[in-house]
Amino acid sequence: MPDPQKHASNRGMLEWLLRKIPGFKGYLEKSYRRESDRLQREWLADHLQRAKQGLTDYTLALTNAGQIDQLAVCDQMRSRLDRLIARLRGGVSGYSGFFDFVQIGEDELESVYAHDSAMSSDVETLGEELANLASATEPPAVLMPQLLAKIDRLAEKVDRREDMLRGLSG
Question: Judging by beta carbons within 10 Å of its beta carbon (0-12, 13-18, 19+), is residue 140 exposed, middle or buried?
């Protein structure tokens, strides 16, 4: 996952010169924050998108085994994953404009970045579990509720992130 602290480093000579112009440094830093936030959300969404292949393989294995009654739960899981991916791709941005009603300060951004970092480990764990789904030994009736609960907890973390960026967190 992109590190927002390092995203603005290693810039070229032109950007170094532009930072010397009064007022332009702040503009560049907001641009870097905007880009870092977008990269974080894209990384999370892309990781979940790739993890869906494990669910597709598992659905195919269930179909081949004749366990068609379990396909509805697989579709429910796919739907929740798709919704989560869409929310991440189109989520609330981790920056605020000059005239925005809710101003996001550096301290709030640090909290959001820490939250995103924790969320990335959850996404990686879920991705690994979905990738290994086809080789699981537990029956679908045991696996599916556990995975749906993990997806729901991840969706709650996305809700929390959006609340933090809207200034609704306490």
Answer: buried
